[in-house]
Design a protein that fits this description.
Blueprint (H helix, E strand, L loop, with lengths): L6 H12 L3 H14 L7 H24 L14 E6 L5 H9 L16 E7 L2 E7 L12 H7 L2 E7 L5 H14 L2 E3 L9 E3 L1 E6 L6 H12 L5 E3 L8 H12 L1 E7 L5 E10 L4 H8 L1 H6 L2 E6 L2 E7 L9 E6 L1
Parallel strand pairs: 1-3, 1-4, 4-7, 5-6, 7-8, 9-13
Antiparallel strand pairs: 2-3, 9-10, 11-12, 11-13
Helix pairs in contact: 1-2, 2-3
């Protein structure tokens, strides 16, 4: 059944998907309900909006009344979540600040970061969430932080190329993680542990002698970890960090197209690699998946407007037109 969703509704729907806080989600849902056409074809969508609004309002009221908040719980936003791991003064806060413009606390003394600081790193037409965290030491991690590390899609290890203890910094990061059951993808985890995609970002690459140290570091760890020489001062390595994150997230971007209208390239749907047209329809709205009749696609492996089956596997940057 035709829904005839308005541009104002679609804008509010995008705002909801990009919202970072419960308050932003509530505001977007209220706008969606106010702008959705009120007719029989949208009754289920109206009910779904009201159900989600009720749940978010109830959760917000419960948080306010309870007062108990886990400061290390960071709601996942964007295309994926990347948590930074590094020893004191390794340069991770400066890196997050430069990559995301987040208001991190960059200081010349250790332990300037006391809790998680999220920011959004752009990559082409999507954003990936980075989380700056308190530093790790040989003694361990700040209580509560390990949950953030386990929940993240990727861990970005950070070490200072100009530091005399460069190798120790990397070993401390890897040892602390392994002691808590987290090892790089490709390595056998301890009993009860898990593998986690990891990247090593070596900072301060703009300083004298830094690239020589990076070459030595790569000889030691290059086979185990993707590595990037980076600088928060010159932005060296920023594109490589973002691309490594995108590739390790193992996702595809899919653009929606309304019949008879140009493709919407402003806000792609981000899906796990291997997702199908039906998965994309469900990401737009669950009613679309249930009522999907046919679809057309455009992409590198498709000819213009090619009819595609519901179980057609999507490729990165495919364009899909859904018909219900």
């Amino acid at each position: 059944m035709t829904t005839n969703l308005t541009p104002m509704y679609m804008k509010a729907d995008r705002a909801f998907r990009e919202a970072k806080t419960d308050a932003e989600k509530i505001a977007a849902l209220e706008e969606m309900y106010a702008t959705i056409p009120k007719h029989k074809g949208t009754e289920k969508m109206q009910a779904d909006i009201k159900h989600r609004l009720s749940g978010l309002r109830e959760a917000a009221a419960h948080k306010k009344a309870g007062g108990g908040i886990d400061i290390f719980h960071v709601e996942r936003q964007g295309a994926g979540q990347v948590a930074l791991v590094g020893t004191p003064n390794c340069g991770k806060s400066a890196l997050v600040g430069a990559l995301t413009k987040a208001h991190v606390n960059v200081a010349p003394y250790p332990f300037a970061t006391h809790g998680p600081v999220p920011g959004m790193m752009p990559f082409e037409d999507i954003r990936i969430q980075l989380i700056d965290l308190p530093p790790v030491t040989a003694e361990g991690v700040v209580p509560g932080m390990i949950g953030t590390l386990r929940n993240a899609n990727i861990l970005l290890l950070v070490a200072d190329l100009a530091a005399p203890d460069l190798l120790d910094q990397v070993e401390v990061c890897l040892s602390v993680l392994e002691n808590r059951g987290l090892v790089p993808t490709g390595k056998t985890p301890p009993e009860g542990g898990a593998t986690k995609p990891m990247i090593l970002a070596a900072t301060k690459a703009d300083l004298p002698g830094a690239m020589d140290n990076f070459a030595a570091l790569k000889d030691l760890y290059g086979a185990a970890l993707p590595m990037v020489a980076a600088s928060a001062e010159t932005f060296l390595g920023f594109d490589a960090i973002a691309r490594h994150c995108f590739e390790l997230l193992d996702i595809v971007r899919v653009y929606s197209k309304e019949p008879g209208k140009p493709v919407d390239r402003t806000s792609p749907f981000v899906l796990k690699r291997g997702s199908t047209v039906l998965d994309m329809a469900a990401a737009v709205h669950r009613d679309l998946a249930a009522n999907l009749k046919r679809a057309r696609g455009w992409g590198d492996n498709l000819f213009e407007g090619q009819p595609v089956e519901k179980h057609h596997v999507l490729a990165d940057k495919d364009i899909i037109e859904l018909h219900v």
